[in-house]
Amino acid sequence: MPLQNRVDPFGELFRTTARGTFLGNRGGAIHNEHREIVRPYKSRQWISCVLEFKGRRRVVMTPRRYTELFFLDEAVAFSAGHRPCCECRRERFNAFKRAWGRPARAPEIDVELHGARLDSRKRKLTYQAPLESLPNGSFVNIDGSAWLVWDDALALWSPAGYVRKDPRPPHQIATVLTPEPIIRCFQNGYVPETHPSLHV
């Protein structure tokens, strides 16, 4: 059975045999010795990483080590509330920091993101916004499904890729999944990396 280490745009962890294109973690070990998820996160440092870095190799969900999580693409990682890693994605982190809109170090960014990703009951925070106002890379919830905003279209997310495109409807209020500070970064010019299926 696949491990429960894949992340959807709602920030939920699930099992699938489909492969992700980004790695990440939530600040440490959130699994037990049986490789089962036992908590939603360890710290406020939620990051997204490249799949390979400097030839490092490890067994996924090694006991007492950080829990490896996987995302379809960077847009999904952002929707779940993860930012670029300062080490393996230094250039992208620096671009994200420039788009943040004001000087901030990683710990300060993590504090603000944490307040925008979860409520006091550790449930995903969402908010309402006009669909036409959202930049590329934003995820919205429509009837319980996650749709990626890209140009004049909405793309339906699935674990294996984007499976359908519909025109972006005008004059509609949407429930936004991507945390508000990240939306601001997109509006300031940061363009998230997306799965090849989006551009077919």
Could you explain the architecture of this structure?
This protein has 4 helices and 12 strands, in the order E-E-E-E-E-H-E-H-H-E-E-E-E-E-E-H. It has helices at 74-80, 90-99, 106-117, 180-187; strands spanning 6-7, 13-14, 22-26, 46-49, 69-71, 83-84, 127-130, 139-142, 145-150, 153-158, 161-167, 173-176. The longest helix is centred in the middle third of the chain and has 12 residues, at 106-117. Helix 2 (90-99) packs across helix 4 (180-187). It starts with 5 loop residues before the first strand and ends in a 13-residue tail after the last helix. It is globular and about 50 Å long. It folds into 2 domains: 6-117, no CATH class; 127-199, Roll (SH3 type barrels). The chain is 18% helix and 24% strand. By secondary structure, it is an alpha+beta fold.
